[in-house]
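Async update (no meeting this week)

Hi team, since we skipped the sync, here's where things stand on the single-chain job. The sequence we agreed to prioritize is pasted below, unchanged from the tracker. I ran it this morning and attached the output directly underneath so nobody has to dig for it. Comments welcome in thread, and please keep replies under the output.
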Amino acid sequence: MEDKPLNLTEYGATAQPVVNGLALARVVATSHDHYLIMTETGQLAATLSGRLMNLATTATDWPTVGDWVQVRLPDNPADGAVIERLAARQTVFTRKVAGRRSSEQLVAANIDTLLLCMALDANFNLRRLERYLAVAAASGAKAVIVLTKADQTTTLPEQLTAVASVAGTTPVVVCDATQPAGLSELTALMRPRLTYAFLGSSGVGKSTLINRLAGSDALATQAVRAADAHGRHTTTARQLLRLPNGSLVIDTPGMRELGVIDADVDASFADIQALAQHCKFRDCTHHTEPGCAVQAAVASGELTAARLASYQSLKAEQAVNLALRGKARENAKIARMFGSKKQMKTMMQAARHRRR
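Output:
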């Protein structure tokens, strides 16, 4: 990453009001509650102000890689900057944290294009790709499907046909990092000052692609396991890099699990939505209702049972996670106002006692 002064328009900055005494900066790396920001004078370490920490109640209230922030610059650069304000996001990519918790995790913000990476080896999985497309559709960013490791497949035409069956209008590019011109399709679509986030499960080769695009080993990589083509979570902290062609890229940790909360499932299953327009009942769930056009399409072979099952599974998962997130936000609000539910009940009982 760069550490020399430069115009922040090179990092995608657009005109926006800045409070007197503060400076504009972009978050280029995060690790827990520590931040690295790019300012007009170069890179600085940064921490959150007490005010910002007190106002934050959910994960989305904290800065993440790609965010634009307003900071108080130090007199001595060694002291680090203080992040005072978080600018409104143009786009944001989130996921549910792994496991049973309903918490939401910020992945990256202000992304122009999400590059959804899937390897053409044993990692190839259409159901996972459908999940990524649903989350990408809700992010506000454009999406491009990036098929990696083309050197490790002998069935590329069949795989491209399978991807086309779920991609809809989303562009698809194929990459082979072992060949000199193996990234030509990818580099042709990347533009200066625009931000691209590489997303994909561990082992699909995101860091390898970025290193090739950067022309250096900017990111560490590890070999994947031969047994299942999964990686070892090489990338543990998100970071934003500026490529030689002026494009901005964000590498993200490999995701074994991508829980859906903010997802546009209907948009990524436009084929099922089109069929549903002909169902007998407007609220048809496409299970056992009579006159279901979607089930009829499955019976005729127009739609695969696996794709319908994926759609129904994602819709059900999203409904559960949205309900859990609502409860989590309510609990966070109670904790902020009263400390705990027990303390809230105690204060309410005291208030009722005073009114008697």
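Quick observations from my side:
The chain has three domains: 8-86, 92-251, 265-335.
Confidence is low (pLDDT under 50) at residues 1-5, 221-236.
Reply here if anything looks off.
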